[in-house]
Amino acid sequence: MTKVPRWNALIELYNEQYPGVEVINATVTGGSGVNARAVLKTRMLGGEPPATFQVHAGEELTGTWVVADRMEDLTFLFEEQGWFDVFPSQLIDQITYEGGIYSVPVNIHRSNVMWYVPANLEQWGVEVPTSMDEFFAACETLQGQGIVPLSLGEAWTQNHLWESVALAVLGPDAWNGIWSGETDPAGAEMVEVWDTFGRVLDCTNLAEDAAGLSWQQATDMVMNGEAAFNIMGDWAAGYMTTTLGLTPGEGYGYAAFPGTDGIFMWLSDSFGLPVGSPNRDATIAWLTLLGSVEGQNAFNPLKGSIPARVDAVDAAPDAYNAYLQDTAAAWADNTLVGSLVHGTAANERFMGDFNQVMEIYQASRSAVAAANAMAAVCIQSGACGGGM
Amino acid sequence: MKKQFTVLAALALIVVMLVPNFATAQDLSGELEIFSVVGR
What we know:
By secondary structure, chain A is of the alpha+beta class.
């Protein structure tokens, strides 16, 4: 178990309100939640659920624990707290299953963000690319100077990169079509996604040391001037601002992944109430705090995310830095699509098997083989329009 | 006398309204295990 600073603000707030409750922060780090989900599964199936657990809003929740009748319906809490008026309807849709609502969203993160250091780009004579063509041109310029164009880390960060590339190639409608069954996962568009992804990988440190790097170390490569760009969700902004002490727009720059400007690939951290949760009343009090303006504003500025509630930023605008203010504005105007890698778009079965698709691609570098493998995973998991 | 009674009644009402909230906060006890995915 590890104490984690960004949760501490919320836990301290909870302890002020409920001093009689001992909060145990049971955290399993790493692997984009893969390790934590494995431990959670053992406990849930063993009849020993934690009081509450963090889960991404979307299919990671509904397609796994809700369909298995392991979560309590929280509609009563949404009604009591007036949350139907303050959480966006698309977000509520993602945590709803057969009329019930199953978790309390704490925040919104953006997946398709490209990070860089403005002064370094100027020194290397590179502009921020806004299209894939511009990205590949910048890649060539940077490689000519011995700079890694795009830093990459361990396996899940490669999946993370893939979803931004796929969004750039497909656009929002065809991306959503993968999950609704309207886009053929083995079709020509998807082959182009894998081909483009391969070209992007050739601009990274994959062949050198990527597999051994955490996402923070991949971010550090950009900050240290070893690499020009990194693609990561905007928890990286929390890392660069809170941990590294950098100012957004000066110490680090940000832009949508090339070809995805105006599209917001989102994910949301949320907490649910497992059936059989020990200390149910204390858990409901925790969930109530998470959904409050006070709770969301205690957590999000440190995490580097925007509140899930639409009224929270206005209640404390000074708490949100330039990056988060820009992101809140983008959340309000952009076309919204769900993240695959972070649990919004597809169920856990698909995500587990998608790792094998990625391994097949990296071993073979065959776009057709990868697209066919993905189509097979769609059928096995039922994640792409109910078993196409 | 009537005024005093009104004041007392108002005070009693305030106490009745506050006690449940106070009691709710104070009554919660035991452990709350929060299982988190962090570090990505």
